[in-house]
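ingest -> validate -> predict -> emit
validate: passed (alphabet ok, no gaps, 72 aa)
predict: started
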Amino acid sequence: MQKKEKNKFKDNLLGKQLALFGLFVLWGLLIIFKKMLSPNLRMGLFVLLVLVTVAGIYFLNRAFFGIGDDKK
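emit:
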């Protein structure tokens, strides 16, 4: 039973790391194609990516450091 829980944790952590990598790719795409976007769309995407990045970093830090876990 212990091994299943460890594998589940590793899979969950890997998924969060892949999501963060995906955010970096989205940031890169926004930077590369920013001249092709209208100013309103560019600002909307920028704000959305900032919010999603902050949330992603928070959840990844929770996974690494166990913030908010009630397990003792």
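The mean pLDDT is 78.
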